[in-house]
Specification:
Radius of gyration: 25 Å
GO molecular function: ATP binding
Organism: Streptomyces antimicrobicus
Strand content: 15-25%
Strand order of the largest sheet: 5-6-7-3-8-9
Protein name: ABC transporter ATP-binding protein
CATH class of one domain: Alpha Beta
Helix content: 25-40%
Number of strands: 13
Distance between the termini: 36 Å
Keywords: ATP-binding, Nucleotide-binding, Transport
Family: Belongs to the ABC transporter superfamily.
Largest sheet: 6 strands, mixed
CATH topology of one domain: Rossmann fold
Oligomer: single chain
Structural class: alpha/beta
Shape: elongated
Number of helices: 11
CATH superfamily of one domain: P-loop containing nucleotide triphosphate hydrolases
Bound molecules: adenosine-5'-triphosphate
Length: 373
Amino acid sequence: MIEAVGLTKRFGAKTAVDQLSFQVRPGHVTGFLGPNGSGKSTTMRMILGLDRPTSGHVTINGRPFRELPNAQRHVGALLDAKAVHGGRRARTHLLALAQLSGIPEKRVDEVLGVVGLQDVARQRTKAFSLGMGQRLGIAAALLGDPQVLLFDEPVNGLDPEGILWVRNLMRQLAAEGRTVFVSSHLMSEMALTADHLIVIGRGRLLADMGVQEFIAHNSAGFARVRVADSDRLGAQALGEALVKAGGQVLKEPDGALRVTGLTLPHVSDLAHEAGVRLWELSPHRASLEEAYMRLTQSAVEYTSTEDPRAELFEPEPLTVPAWEDEGAHQVSGPTAAAFYAPPPPGAAGAQPFLMPSRPGDLAGTATDPEDPR
Ligand SMILES: Nc1ncnc2c1ncn2[C@@H]1O[C@H](COP(=O)(O)OP(=O)(O)OP(=O)(O)O)[C@@H](O)[C@H]1O
């Protein structure tokens, strides 16, 4: 287990990591998420004794990394796949690491096989692609058959087959009871790989919870409702009825309506009353990416500005739902331009999750009666 308590790191005036406390438990893949510059690498470096905390502490199985006897047998890490002597052959690189830790030579060939580099084991690493470098870094992390593994962006540069392989490897390592702590910016991948998430922004803890719980807390559910394609009048009538009943309605590109603020049975009843034939009525949960964007939007340090050249182009006319055109009812909530964005904080069904001020006191977790699920 990895345990951080009040972990803080300042570089001059910059606070890279700010009072972080968390535990990374064995038997799970724990994803470590945060925007660029939020302090993930600095945290991992402190876990591995490469950076000294300004205050607080972090331990692995109860001891600081530097106090672990033969640490490579307990902890394996991939921090920077490029941190390899390019003139060395892959096997020689691993052999040198093994000899430093008293790991037998046959283990080198084992891990080369595990990561699929056995055929290029005698090539110099400077000729390696980014993906091959990642595999070599993972091999180095596995050398000591450690109980605790840290991976900083392990799928960076890997092709789809490689990404799938890393996902299966992480899950297998966790299933063997190991502690697996992995950072990534690939949300779709994290959703498939991680069981638990630790999310930070500007060095501070934003969330520490299971993946499904994280998505549920940081996204608004909505219903997708689609009228028979040929029934344009029906779609309009239903749209009006939904808005009149207090729903927030947006039109999706495929013609379906995205409805927040009404339960599925209520939407079904309104369709029935309007005599409208439905082709779809389904609950929708946001993706991990949507939930993550929503939680971290105020913690992003580097945001882009509009490209001024965009003014050279004519803006696309907005597609406004027919019932809004006619002014029958006002569609409230997000604008038509934000069809795929989750509703902003404060909109129906949208309670961003905040870390509790006291343990056990969860803020923003009240169930929303208007959630359509
Ligand atoms: N050695 C250092 N000296 C000064 N500032 C540093 C140093 N290392 C990191 N920082 C700063 O600390 C902050 C956190 O950096 P860190 O690399 O830990 O973030 P990160 O979450 O890993 O980012 P990314 O996702 O882009 O890899 C950044 O603002 C960075 O510039």
